[in-house]
Amino acid sequence: MRCWCGPASCGLCCRCLPQINESTGTRFMYTLFLVIGFVVASLMLSPQLEQAFIDNVPGFNETCVQLMAGENCSKLTGYKAVYRLCLGMVAFHFVLCLLTICVDSSSYCRGGIHNGYWFWKILFFIGCLVASFFMPHTYRLYWMYVGMVGGVIFIIFQLILLVDFCHSWHAKWVGTKSGHKSTCGRCGTLLFAVIFYLASVAAAFLLFWNYTTWEGCLHNKIFIGVNTSLCIILSAITIVPGVARFNPNTGILQASVITFYVMYLTWTALSSEPPEDIVELENTVKVFYSKQVDKKKSVKDMPINMDGLDDMRNIHSLSITNGTQCRPMPTFDHMEMISAYAGLLIMLVVAIYSSLQTSIASHRLGVRRTRAAVSERYECCCCCRVTGKTNHSEKGGQRVNYNEAEATTYNYAFFHFVFCLASLYVMMQLTNWYRPEESDLNTFGLNWAAVWVKMGSSWACVVIYILTLFRPKFCPGRDLAFRRNEEIQVDGEGDAMRRETTI
């Protein structure tokens, strides 16, 4: 009761389970909300599920009409339904984001709102989802623009954290307490740099082999060529001696990791290209064949020539072959559908991991947490303290460690803000970004919108990395230049305090 209707944090019912931290259990619950919303949104785009309801549920259409959900529950399917559902998810986290601003401890009343009251939050979550379906459909265009902005911000956060990870890895291996560079660390970074570069070269070769032909696939050649050139440019800039004056932490390790990641994004972009439309190919073939006919004769008056028809069939088959050769041929039946569902699962895992990692590493994006004494925090306005933060499951169930009773391990408000962005990112991925009318779960990820988003992400990653070479403080609150570990310093009151390094 204290967990579901009160401010206590939740644990599972089994006593034999290991102790769980308050922060871990809370983030698991919010992740579960995101997964549930994602699954429901995916089912709304599944044409097989809709058809199964129509065929097997008696009176399905009548029930939908009585519930004002449209004929065959059309308001609960398609990209418009996904828009409304994700609007409810964003509203849920946005309200919690406003309620948890400046919460530095779970002992706050508002800290209890974040960690407890799960029964009421489930009702509020369901209420937000239901209320979102009353949004007028005329606002879907504006909501699409909001989703695009939020999805792009979410991607940029991940790119900044990736570049930050590369610089931090290099600084950790090369840096020492004395401020000098470690020889063993430099050898280790060179070894991993060689591995990443060899993998990148192999990836570029395989991309040219599988996604291009000698005479066609010009767009794929441009994509691969541009990204390969960008990787060469950023590697050349990294090894230029003058760059070390701006950022002493520059190294070939960072360039190799970014190069490998850019090649990975290039592969995902090329694999997201939709298969050629047979109807368009036939029209193209007819136009091509008509141009080869003698201009002095009209096609209408031309006698039937079997040789010409054979030539047309050959051209038709050649065009289809060239179209499919821009991507590897399917090795078995329903490969595209299986790839779509696999991509759907991978997207969910990436979205969850990125959301949790971004909230944990919020200090790397300039979001700081105050670690003042507990007695000082409750002197400010209406920040009443929740008493009795002892373990509530002494008589059974999983023990909960209240590790945030003194100070939070992550910023609550920023956590919910990131989950708002994650909901928008999931929404845009499911609805093909700027082409929502083409949304179909069976062809998830096979659209030109996904191609351009992934290619744009690769270019943005290169730009962010080059900016950190010349401006080490490009990340808010972070200095990505090499710095030696700082000694223990004493503050004005005489208390010993270790200042955290910025690396």
How is this structure best described in words?
The protein has 503 residues and is mostly helical. Helix 1 runs parallel beside helix 15 (412-430) and helix 13 (335-360) packs antiparallel against helix 15. It starts with 19 loop residues before the first strand and ends in a 6-residue tail after the last strand. It contains 16 helices and four strands. The strands form two sheets. A two-stranded parallel sheet has the order 1-2. Strands 3-4 form a two-stranded antiparallel ribbon.
Helix content: 55-70%
Coarse morphology: globular
SS field, number of helical segments: 16
The ordered string of helix (H) and strand (E) elements is EHHHHHHHHHHHHHHEHHEE
Query: What is Rg?
Result: 28 Å
Q: Summarize the main sheet.
A: 2 strands, parallel
> Would you identify the regions where 5 or more consecutive residues have pLDDT less than 50?
277-289, 293-324, 372-383, 484-503
Brief overview, please?
The chain is mainly α and 503 residues long.
Attribute tags:
disordered C terminus, two-stranded antiparallel ribbon, 59% helix, mainly alpha, 503 residues
